[in-house]
Structure formats: structure tokens, C-alpha cells
Amino acid sequence: MSTRPRAMSGTIPSMESSHEELKDNTIIIVLGASGDLAKKKTYPALFGLYKNGFLPRGVHIVGYARTKMDDAEYHKRITSYIKVHEGDAEAASKLEEFKRLSSYISGGYEDSPSFGNLNKTLEKIESGYQSKERHRLFYLALPPSVFIPVAQHLKEQCYVTPDVGKCRMIVEKPFGKDLDSSRVLLGSLKQHWTEDETFRIDHYLGKEMTKNLLVLRFANIAFSSFWDKHSISNVQITFKEPFGTEGRGGYFDEFGIIRDILQNHLLQVLSILTMERPVSFAAEDIRDEKVKVLRCIPPIERSDTLLGQYVAANGKPGYLDDDTVPHNSVCPTYAATTLWIHNPRWEGVPFILKAGKALNEAKVEVRIQFKDVTQGIFKDISRNELVIRIQPSEAVYLKLNTKTPGLHTRAIPTEMDLTYKRRFLDAKIPEAYESLILDALKGDHSNFVRDDELDVAWKIFTPILHWIDGRSGAPPKPVAYPYGSRGPKELDPFISKYGYKRTVAEYPQRVAGHESRVTINAVRRVCCVVA
Ligand SMILES: NC(=O)C1=CN([C@@H]2O[C@H](COP(=O)(O)OP(=O)(O)OC[C@H]3O[C@@H](n4cnc5c(N)ncnc54)[C@H](OP(=O)(O)O)[C@@H]3O)[C@@H](O)[C@H]2O)C=CC1
Ligand SMILES: O=C1O[C@H](COP(=O)(O)O)[C@@H](O)[C@H](O)[C@H]1O
């Protein structure tokens, strides 16, 4: 798309409005500070925010976990995934400051006295504040087995009352394993923390392109007029990872790819893609619309499901070769499921959610395929497709037909291309976790999962999950696919069953001075005839 960003851009007032933002006198407490998530995501995100001046003035960060370690070991661990380019003196000095404001205390998750100790540490920091005001943001980077005791102890031992400040709690998935367990978990957490104080992370809601969906859909009249069953044939939302579950087999085998990716990340993307226009950008208005559309989706049918498990290939191990995985496991590492939305906008349009580990590439995208144009003047003309690439290399591109340049009258599929790194040259795309932690500090719930959203998401997936878990007889056996492939060989027939027609654009293109990749004869083969 060739428009240049204008000097004056459109404003989205309520998206930027400030909520009850934690500004001064704030401590961020990371529980599970010794773990993988904290090391790989939470601390790098906190540093990213700190470096760019987005954390509250005078912020302190306190790590808490069972592991005993001194501050030096803690600092080494939490900075191991933080990248500072050589020669970037400013970032290096910010990193030293970041270490100075980060301290660690060890303690258990189930015993109350440990949380008493944590509270003393927090009070000691707060005793240096100039005013009575104090705020605490608790980040639970913990396994779900300890969510409930930790939430309870935090409330009993480490909670500051509203007259002096605010306490907020960020919780990470998994939020249960099915509808019943999710309700039990939510109910237990709600005994101690209100919905307003709770921020349930689905980090796909913090990704730039997921956030862009609202703007793409509702700020472009050109898009809104074709966003329904009259123009759209089918939609695919795809997650592909080029590595397996090595090292996480124990966790993964208990959950499987549907709980890991589809029930949360891909369904969140689907809900924003298909919801009606919210009354405003206020969190509850957006989440009301998401819940409404999700409630129109019935539980997934077994016949609308394809399950796979990767096997050894190309020198890479199969899923079952992992020692932490039971040798006869039928846990799916690949799933494609088709969802149907029974409302006037979407009746009859298949939404195919597909996700897999150990595939041929890393890619997350939404692919909206439009219906055929009326035949007659054209023969075998390609369908339009709108692709929203969430990662890597954020992009929006529209595949459309154009006349081949020259004296012949032929049509050829090509793309209108908004690839971010080419279009927004100096833009820094924030990490999802940076964006979400900042939202929690601001008290903005728009990009967090509300309790009723979670409930309806589990209703859609629970029957199929119980079938896969073997609760209603023998579990289905996933089909094998080789490590590094596109997925099960049954995938393409599965997708075409729902009307997807693949087109390949082969017109010789000159990109950044490179020569064409096919000859004009090849073009003749793929061009359609204009009668
Ligand atoms: N950022 C970007 O990626 C941009 C790309 N483009 C260009 O647009 C053009 C078209 O893009 P696009 O449609 O995304 O590309 P592809 O043709 O690669 O992908 C289209 C669809 O076909 C499927 N597919 C891929 N390989 C096979 C296969 N061997 N057999 C059957 N199905 C297959 C993919 O499924 P699956 O993913 O499940 O394998 C995907 O759903 C390309 O030339 C690309 O370079 C333009 C702008 C930006
Ligand atoms: O939640 C999860 O997401 C990651 C993928 O996240 P991304 O931001 O790298 O796309 C996935 O690897 C993991 O299995 C899952 O638990």
C-alpha cells in the first residue's frame, strides 16, 4: 500500500486515555523470579520499559522464588536474556541502574511466614518514600499449581489497603485445563482478588499486529464493507513453530497444542477479527463485544478436527523420543480445528485455527480468503486474499489480480504490500510483554482476558479436549508428520474441504533491483484468460 504516513495522524482518544496509572512509589514484585518465563520475557520487558522511561519514577523491582541466591547471582540470571549492543553506553548504564533497583528475596509459595518476610522487605523499601502513597504490582510467573496459595498469601500478607495505594496481580496462563477446572481456579482467585485487580495475560493480545486489528477493521471503511459472509469464503489463523517441545515435554504432554495455543492465543485473535464494532475503546466495551461473538460459536465437532504428532526426521528427534514424554503418548503437537460463528455476519464461514510444533518455519498469520468473482469474462481467476502477518516481519498484504503490464490482456495475481520494516523505517515494535506490563501499570484491562471470556473459550474447546484426553473412550491417535514439514499430509485436503483454494503468484517481480525469478513462459502458464 503506497500511502506515506501523514504528518498529522488520526487520533484514537480513548485508546490512549490514562486510567488509574501507578506513577510514583511503585514496587513490581516478580514471583517465580528464578524461572524461565521471568528470565526470558518478564525481566527483558521490564528493562525495555525502564530504558525507555515507561516505568514509574523511583520504581523498585523485587524478585521472589524458592531458589536461594545472592543479588549477584540474581542479577546475572535476570539479565541473561537482555541484549545491550556493544558500544551502546547509554543502554549499558541503564542496565547497571536497572540492576541497582532490582533485589531478590527467597521464600516458599505455600507458607505464610515467607510472605510475611516478603512484606517486610517491601515495607523497608517503602519507608524511604516521601508520602504515604504506595502501590504494588505482583507478577505471577509461576506454575498454576501454586496460583491459589500465592494469591491467598499475597492478599493476607502483602496487600496495601486502598486508602494508601493500589495492588494489582498479573497472572499467566494456563487458566485451568477445561471448563470445570478453570471455574474452580477463577473462583478461588476471586476470593482474594477482585476482577479489577486481576490482569490475566494472553501475550498475543500484546502483539503489535493483534492490537492493529482493531484499527485495520474499524478505521477503514474500505475494509468494513467486505468483512462478512457475503464476501469472505474462509479464514485461516495459523501458528507455526520450527522447533519441537524438547526440554518442555513434561509440561506439554499434560496440555497439548490445543490448550497451549488454540484455546487462548488463536481464539483471542479470532474474537477481535470477528467481533462487532465496540461502542468505544474502553476495556469493557471491547471485551463485551469479544464475549458476544464467542458466545455464537458452538463447541468444536470431532469431524472438524485434524490432529498430528511429529516424528523424527532430518536428524531431529520425534516427540516420543523425549525422555520426559510417555513412550505411548497420543498428545497432539499439531491441531487444525474449524469453528463456525452462528450470527448474521458470519453464518457459513469456516474459521480454521491451526497450530503446530516442529514445522518448516516460524509464522503466525491471519489469512482471509475472499469468494470467487463471477465467472464469464474471466476463466480460473485467482481469489483475493488479505494476509495479516503477526510475526515474524509484521505485514499486511492484499493479494489481488491485476492486468499484466504490456500489450497482452491477461490478469495475474500480485500483492499490495504493507511490510512494516520497509514502510515504517524507524519504528521500534515493542515486545508483547512490554506493552502488557505497561497496560497493567496504567490499569487498562483492554488487552487482558476477562473471566467470562475465559469461560466461553473453554466451553468451545472442552468437549474436544475431553475426547482427546480419552474421557469418552479411546483417545484419537494423531497422524504422524515429519519434523520440519508443513504438518500432516492430510492438512491440504482438510483445508480445501472448507473451500480454501491456493494460488501461487509467479509473475517475475523485480524486488529491490533483483532480477526476475521465472520466465515469461511461466507467466503464461499462471495468467488467467480475459475473455
Ligand atoms: N511479509 C510477507 O510474508 C509478505 C509476503 N509477500 C509475498 O506474497 C506472495 C504470496 O504470499 P503468500 O500467499 O503468503 O505465500 P504462500 O503461497 O507461501 O502461502 C499461501 C498459502 O499456501 C500454503 N502453502 C505454502 N506452501 C504450500 C505447498 N507447498 N502446498 C500447499 N500449500 C502451501 C500456506 O500454508 P501454510 O502456511 O500452512 O504452510 C499458505 O496458507 C509471496 O510471493 C510473498 O513473498 C508479500 C508481502 C509481504
Ligand atoms: O504461550 C506460548 O507461546 C509460545 C509462542 O509465543 P511467541 O510469542 O513466541 O509466538 C509457545 O512457544 C509456547 O509453547 C506457548 O506456551
What is the gist of this entry?
Helices cover 34% and strands 20% of the residues. The chain is α/β, with parallel strands linked by helices and 531 residues long.
Bound molecules: NADPH dihydro-nicotinamide-adenine-dinucleotide phosphate, ligand LXAUTJHC
Number of helix segments? 16
Average per-residue pLDDT, rounded, comes to 91
Describe the main β-sheet briefly: 11 strands, mixed
- Strand line-up across the major sheet: 12-17-15-14-13-11-7-10-9-8-16
Question: What is the 3D form?
Answer: globular
Through-space gap between termini: 29 Å
How much of the sequence lies in strands comes to 15-25%
Low-confidence stretches: 1-8, 511-527
Structural class: alpha/beta
Strands, count: 17
Helix content: 25-40%
Radius of gyration: 25 Å
Could you list some keywords that capture this structure?
531 residues; alpha/beta; 6-stranded parallel sheet; 16 helices; 17 strands; 34% helix; disordered N terminus; binds NADPH dihydro-nicotinamide-adenine-dinucleotide phosphate; NADP; EC 1.1.1.49; oxidoreductase
List the helices and strands and how they pair.
Blueprint: H1 13-16, E1 26-31, H2 36-51, E2 60-65, H3 71-78, H4 89-100, E3 102-106, H5 112-126, E4 135-140, H6 147-157, E5 167-172, H7 179-190, E6 198-201, H8 208-218, H9 221-224, E7 232-240, H10 249-274, H11 283-294, E8 305-311, E9 334-340, E10 350-356, E11 363-370, E12 378-379, E13 385-391, E14 395-403, E15 410-419, H12 420-423, H13 432-442, H14 451-468, E16 479-482, H15 491-497, H16 520-526, E17 528-530
Parallel strand pairs: 1-2, 1-4, 2-3, 4-5, 5-6, 7-10, 8-16
Antiparallel strand pairs: 7-11, 8-9, 9-10, 11-13, 12-17, 13-14, 14-15, 15-17
Helix pairs in contact: 2-13, 5-6, 7-14, 10-11, 10-14, 11-14
The structure holds NADPH dihydro-nicotinamide-adenine-dinucleotide phosphate and ligand LXAUTJHC.
Family: Belongs to the glucose-6-phosphate dehydrogenase family.
Protein name: Glucose-6-phosphate 1-dehydrogenase
Keywords: Carbohydrate metabolism, Glucose metabolism, NADP, Oxidoreductase
